[in-house]
Amino acid sequence: MVAGAERGRQYGQLCPIALALDAIGDRWALLLIRELFAGPKRFTDLAAGLPGVGTGVLSERLRQLEHHGVVSRRRLRPPTPAQVYELTARGAALDPILTGLARWGAVYMTGRDDLTSRGRWLLQAMAATARTPPPGLETTNFVLDGEECHVLVARDRLVARDGLREGARITVRGASRELYMLASSPGKPTAPSRHFAVDGDRRSADRLLDHLVLGVRRAAATGVPKA
């Protein structure tokens, strides 16, 4: 059952869209889920990754998402006895919905360099808008403004996650602003890796960056997700 205070914010409609929004439609909820798609996080990690959210609001959103079976808590084993939040199977099932929302929203990305930006957010957007990866792309680590993350090349998609991927042969280092400028500029990029320091094969880095940049540019230019 939903608590009385929460029930007052419900739509009260027997409609799956309304019921879904009852569960995940409050402010910060989807961005919190975005953070957890990159990997499990402590409360302090979530607060740091959501600039502007108050700790009280964050606690409330986490309680709501736990109540609806979207998020769960887990205690890490020693020597790091911390509590982390992570997506449940039900939460992970939101993947295609958030991917579609990222594709739809890419059209609003251009000309917004006044907004707070992080490299992993941009990589998540790029991975969401990218087409099925062609042969030759490699899982690549990124260190953008000191933040460590990686783009995992799966069979049918790209995925951006926290941390450096063990075994990745390429690491791209630089500024998230450079990545944003590449993503928001028109036309086909030329040797995009020249904007970054690259450990490993620069041609492989160019292939991945080119694929990422073209995906978000295409989505931003048309406003229509590409198959």
Number of domains: 2
Say how many strands there are. 7
**Radius of gyration over alpha carbons?**
19 Å
Mean of the pLDDT scores? 90
Topology as H/E string?
HHHHHEEHHHEEEEHEH
Instruction: Give the full name of the CATH homologous superfamily of the largest domain.
Output: SCP2 sterol-binding domain
Low-confidence stretches: 1-5
**Shape annotation:** globular
Q: Determine the number of helices (DSSP H or I, runs of at least 4 residues).
A: 10
CATH class of the largest domain: Alpha Beta
Distance between the termini: 40 Å
Largest sheet: 5 strands, mixed
Strand content: 5-15%
Which structural category fits the helices and strands? alpha+beta
Using the coordinates shown, work out and report the CATH topology of the largest domain.
Answer: Nonspecific Lipid-transfer Protein, Chain A
**Main sheet strand line-up:** 5-4-3-6-7
Which CATH-level-2 architecture of the largest domain? 2-Layer Sandwich
Fraction in helix: 40-55%
How would you describe the overall organization of this protein?
With 227 residues, the chain is α+β, with helices and mostly antiparallel strands. The protein folds into two domains: 90 residues, Arc Repressor Mutant, subunit A, CATH 1.10.10.10; 119 residues, 2-Layer Sandwich (Nonspecific Lipid-transfer Protein, Chain A). Strand 1 and strand 2 form a beta hairpin. The longest helix is centred in the C-terminal third of the chain and has 21 residues.
Which terms summarize this structure?
two-stranded antiparallel ribbon, Nonspecific Lipid-transfer Protein, Chain A, disordered N terminus, 10 helices, alpha+beta, Arc Repressor Mutant, subunit A, 227 residues
